[in-house]
Design a protein that fits this description.
By secondary structure, the protein is α+β, with helices and mostly antiparallel strands. The protein has helices at about 5-20, 70-90, 110, 140-155, 155-165; strands at about 30-35, 40-45, 50-55, 95-105, 125-135. Helix 1 packs across helix 2 (about 70-90) and helix 2 (about 70-90) crosses helix 4 (about 140-155).
């Protein structure tokens, strides 16, 4: 699809949302994860798409699939890239290159419930999350491209969820075995 097609779609949605702001709030498609033995998990979308994950061998997995943490980084990179592409289309900028790399550092001790020698908790979550963006467009000043990336990052759902520490409600149902 062309950048103009995207720009036209975004304009139509914005017109509707300005008239009916309540239409902007919606339930997102759930992700349903099912255990397949060992550390293998298959997560599915309502449309039938499935993604398998597994842990590396040193943590009891086979290492032949991506890890759930990688999916988080992939979601961060893909979500931000999508929003940048949308922003570029809306601004009439024809991108010639857009590449994002999401990286982080993690401490496996946190996932194992271990603590520091002083007894303090070690986070299981990633730290030092970074997003590296390479962007290019013929005839567009670097400052304008940087502003596009920064604004898109502020309006991108996955980075917002990570930065705003979105609370996660935990509901537990113990099923009969």
């Amino acid at each position: 699809m062309s950048a103009q097609y995207v720009a036209d779609a975004l304009e139509r949605v914005e017109i509707v949302l300005r008239r009916r702001p309540d239409m902007g709030l919606h339930d997102d498609s759930p992700a349903t994860a099912r255990w397949r033995g060992s550390t293998r998990i298959v997560t599915s979308h309502d449309n039938g798409i499935e993604v398998a994950t597994d842990m590396p061998g040193e943590l009891g997995g086979t290492g032949d699939q991506v890890t759930p943490g990688w999916l988080m980084r992939a979601g961060l990179a893909a979500c931000t890239a999508t929003r940048i592409a949308m922003g570029a289309a809306a601004a009439g900028i024809e991108l010639t290159r857009l590449e994002l790399r999401a990286s982080s550092r993690s401490d496996t001790r946190g996932m194992l419930g271990m603590t520091e020698p002083d007894g303090s908790r070690i986070s299981a979550g990633p730290s030092d999350v970074e997003l590296h963006v390479t962007i290019a467009a013929h005839g567009v000043p670097a400052e304008k491209l940087r502003a596009l990336v920064e604004e898109s990052h502020r309006c991108s759902p996955v980075p917002c969820a990570l930065q705003e520490e979105t609370p996660v409600g935990l509901h537990i149902e113990v099923a009969a075995s």
